[in-house]
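User: Fold both of these, please.

Assistant: Here is the first one.
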Amino acid sequence: MKQLIVLLEFLVFSSMASANDVVVTNMGAKGDGRANCTVQLQRAIDKCAETGGGVVTLPAGRYLTGTLRLRSHVQLHLQRGAVILGDTRARDKSVYPVRALIYAEDIEDAGISGPGIIDGQANTQAFLSQGFRLNDDIRPLGLHFLRCRDLSFSDFSVKNAGSWTFRLQECDGVRVRAISIRSLAQGNNDGIDVDARNVTISDCLIEADDDGICLKSDNPDFMPENISITNCVIASNCNPIKFGTASYAGFRNVVISNCVIRPTSETNIWHWENHYDDLPAGVLTGLAGIAIESADGGLIEHVSISNITMEGIITPIFICLNERRGDGKGRIRDVSISDVTATAYGNIPCLISGVPRSRISDVRLRNIRVSHAGGQTPLTERLAENLNGYPENRMYGRRNPACGLYVRHAERVTVENLIVEQRSDDQRPAVVADDVRGLDVRRLTTRGVKGAPVQNIESTGISLDDEAVLPPHAPNRGLDHLSFFYAGESTKHRMYIVRDGRIAWSYFDPEGRGEISDAVLLTDGHILMAHQHGIREVVPTPGTADGYTVAWQMDTPKGYEIHSIQPIGRDKIVYIQCGDPFTCVVREIPSLKLIREFKLPMRDGGSHGQMRCFRLTRKGTLLLASMQYGAIIEFDSYGKELRRLDLPGAWGVEELKNGNILGCSNRGFAREYDKKGKVVWEYDWSKNPAYKDISTQKAHRLPDGNTLMNNWFNEWSSQRIDPEHPDVQAIEVTLDGRIVWELSSWFPPADLGPATTIQPLDEPVDRTKMRFGDIK
């Protein structure tokens, strides 16, 4: 019967042969497994190519060879029983002039078909006795294709490669179907390494001592993209499905589906039980079933992985940003993983971990079921950072705060229908969010989990089935974090002094016209305020009927508005009068005698949309946050424009102690500009799904380097505060974007109202040090 099958195969193939086809035995290749056939095999390939291309056939036999170079328009066909044997003299450059058994460079329309075998013989004593070390780059790859186009590979087997088994490097248009790989002899025995575009891989059986199917990106100017992997069975002692670690350009548009991940049949290199104290002795296991890693500054986006069954791994899903290049340019975004069932050894859970200056964003996990050994106690310390270590599941240590899913430095993550099973009771939380901006968990099921379902560590916008999950301590949402002066712009005039967690003084004017647009607490305890239709100096006087007196006040002329005010010395003020003309005015107080006024540039005479804030600098100039120009504009005391900084939606501005300028936009972001006008810091909290209706009116840099930003809620409209999820009035954010305080106080006993300004009590403005040019 075996002879009949071979005969039928030969007859069918012969009927399809063309005049250019070459049978290698006709070129002198003996196929006895002893004589080196490199010359004869290469001659057959070259002859076929020189006559226009076709098929080079290897009949049944064992063909010993060094490097073979495939040519354009040539299909290498290994008949049943045909075996290409790699010469074991791996250090001999005359045998392997190129570091590969089969190599091609800059060819097109070529490939390899089976059902024969390519055997690198790296498992033989003759190969092993040469003393190769792990990562030794002299060992030959199995197959290596560089900058090739329109390739096809089908129905053959590769085994025992000296290094990576099958490498596709900067290729375009590759079809891989129904090939079998078994490489367990050497370290770095990856299965298929894909650094290519427009690739389909299907119906393959892969057993690799290192990574199984590994996407690589070695050239920052070549983006591997449009890659489909489906219907494969992958066994790996490292990472069965992996993106990276080489990730210079990144990866885009990758779809992986319907794959089975299982343990290998043996391991000769990796004995992970020696590295993980919770693994059984002699266990065969890989590291992460799905590993997505950007370590070299590349962008990974538009990835879809679905219908994966895995067993014999330590970590089911590992998504990691890393800065081993140190530039912080790496990005991972828009990743969907669904319908995964994983039985794992050990206790490192699924991880999604960005870095402080680059968050992983828009990750969706759906229908994920993971089972771990369990039996762990809570981890009391936060997980250590490892910004430039080798990226793999153990890079943050062998213990993790979560037993099911750990998310750090990420934003806009959704988890739907997550089942976390611990085979022994585990005291850790099922899910931990650490410095996360938006994690929505829906339908979480746990078995053997004795910790909290979801734990919040310094994160915002964390929810479980639409219920907010707040951190135990930070970000603090109460009044006791900071003592501050607060003014609220609304249909009622409100100002408060909050000290030691309670309201120490309040100003309430239910009949007040317009809005409190700006207010400044001075060192003498007085308050300068601009309320659209006037300006006044308020003196807090606890114990009196109203709690305050008015030192002086002035109404705005009809048709004009005043939205900001600053002191100059003990007896002067400067304000900007909005309208036509748009005017800067300096007056003496309390007499209100005019000292100086000058016109400012304007686009139109609409008084309400020209500006909301200005501030004086230490050198006596004026910084205007111009709404109508979308810019911060600096003027001298006679109206000469000195410089202009682009700031769309400009609303607030202040000079920092280092001479830089901090501006904020009503679109929800703040920017710091250096003295040359370069943006050196920015934070945009409007993009955080945990917050809504963001309109930043003031931003202030605190002495510890954090930034205080307020959020105005428009009570003039039909909007109403949701008592279940009230809007945030202010946040304190670190330079690396972590929110350490939220202010949300809308209901008795401390209804502060919408935030116009918030000023720390220990940073009042000393009017005696304020000047405007020559006016002091």
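And the second sequence with its predicted structure:
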Amino acid sequence: MLLLQRLAVAVLFITISIIGTTAVIGGAEGNPHRIVVDTDVDTDDLLALLYILKLNTSQFQLEGVTISANSWTNAGHAVNQIYDLLYMMGRDDIAVGVGGEGGILPNGTILPNVGGYLPIIEQGLTTVGNCRYRQTIPQGLGGRPTTLFIIGAHTNVAIFLMNNPHLKKNVEHIYIMGGGVRSSNPTGCCPKNASSSCVPGQCGNHGNMFTDYNTNSYAEFNIFLDSFAAYQVIHSGVPITLVPIDASNTIPITEQFFDAFEKTQDTYEAQYCFKSLKISRDTWFDDEFYTSYFMWDSFMTGVAISIMSKPNNHNGENEFAEMEYMNITVITSNKPYGISDGSNPLFDGQKVPKFNLQKGGVHSGHMQTGLRDPLCFVKNGKGKCQDGYTKEISGPDSVKVLVATKAKPNRDVTSSLDREYFIRFLHVLKQPQQTGKFNFTTQFPYYKEVTYKPDFHNKLLGKPVVFDMDMSAGDFLALFYLLKVPVQVIDLKAIIVSPTGWANAATIDIIYDILHMMGRDDIPVGRGDVFATDQTDPIFSAVGGCKYVKAIPHGSGGYIDSDTLYGLARNLPHSPRRYTGENSVKFGAPRDTDHPELRQPLAMEEVYVLGGHISTSADDKGNVFSVPSNQYAEFNMFLDPLAAKTVFESDVNITLIPLSAQRRVSSFATVIGTLLKTRKTPEVLFSKHLLSTLDRLKQINNRYHHMDTFLGEILGAVVLADKSLTLKPKFEVKPIKVLASGDESSDGKIVVDEKHGKLVRILSNVDENAYYNLYANKLGDQYQSAKIA
């Protein structure tokens, strides 16, 4: 029902087909410049993309968009956002690439279809991997020249260039937003009249990593997030133009520009851009938005387009930025080189350095291991690590690059807009040519924001239940079941989302859509902490580690599938309630947004815990398949073992539905067959569609071997609601505890401890046939069925 119902999975290397096609000279008379944009889909990226889409297609043709899922966004949400934006602009012809399941061998061999979910140095054979940097947040010969715009981390482009050196000649030019060469950060400075107690933050740093400048004061985000990839791109031999923060720091979003933008709402794309910018301003963490939010990616796009508009423009003449050639490199590791301290996967433990790199060379030093790396951290000072620094150097390791040094002033000195690019940006967005076809309201003129809130005043409500879910496929199937149980048996009071498991926090929209479909817009949905216990950074709480959640694949069978509900999320009705950035001073925000009443809420007598595994033998193993050293834990316990330990040490009564019980009722053929025999309510049809998708994927692709894990998750809901004991459940009581020592090989494991364990009621068996029939019949019951399908 939303803008597009495309399956949110595509292959990254659309770049190959775009760059390796028809042999015509790109940019020559009569032929447009062909552009591929690699983006991390942040707010400023959307402004840049819409700027390009507004240009005359006879001069500038956007051929494709590849998504850098290694920085500010998650692949599943990003790809649908790009699809929607292109659909709004009437440009479904533009290819969109994301993901890829290939890997990199230990010797550095790059397999086909590597996804770009992880920094190159962390990329193994799967899409499971660490967040070392993210913690801070074309085939064929003789193809047409294509220009690449990189406005995110460089992973995708670097992998393409490293794996397809014969196609470099088809890349005419690369324009990059990022890095800091001679930059001096203008934010975090003490006022001139400040007292001696004022401690400057990033003031004067080369970099802009506001989350970790005490560890690294040199890097800019886009380069830092995969500095080895950035090195490969800049040293590729392809002509490079860099628009670093040296230049973008000189074009902040001013209050005058913001006001002028608010008055320039002539097109749907202008309205979308302004709303995106406004919510960023309204939710900014301090009162310095107008001095710390810059025209990053859209400014680079404007500079690049202006340069490309002029033939034979070797000196980069343009309307918007002053340019200068500089000799630079990208720092990927720290001196002294040639050491082995466990931080550098390119060399540590390798008989031959990965990618045949030079021993003792520039890549062989200490690599920053993450937030607050003790070898880099300087308390109340400037961090020592330089990973990601675009450093000006001389000598054989330098590359001559055209660099933007500062934004040009407005030629009209009487204007309130002090930069020339401000004028051009607003002019382009308001033009009627290449304008958006519609917004949501005009696309669906009969859509009404109706909420369904049932009246239960005359009913005796059953046991109050709060459902805590991590938004795996099985959790959504269990939610459908709980919503079908009569309210006289189960009174679902609220849902709490744990974004530390199988899905990103923004996937909460699927919950809202299911509740809307089932006529239960009255149920509040709260969001829990985005980091597992003890993983939040103690200095800057908005960032943190991924010690446990790194076990979830980014690709197939992991985040990209969960965030899109395996491509089925957009088959659900559209709820008026959405995940939102709206906020309120009543809840600690620095200011009210336009609609503080829409703020996303944050996140008992008895607790039913689905998960955990109590091993009875050496062969009775858990299901954390992505951490080979941990053989006996179950995912729900492993993803936040400290939290699980806290729950099991509390005074509440606990009923555990362990993995062994779930495995007894994990037959796709049986559950699908039973659903086929029941009444075809909308919830039956959707659940069957989802289950059939999981079953099919498991049969045809080994990356989906764990799909029955999600099927077993339905059991907890069915047991909870089985008041008549139709399941003939059998329980046993054991003293157990959860291991959470910080050792990944044992964290999340449940052991029986006669002395120190908590007595827990554990489900050991159910009647399997009764379970399948109870589940299917409840979904097929017309009572409490969907209000909208």
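The mean pLDDT is 88.
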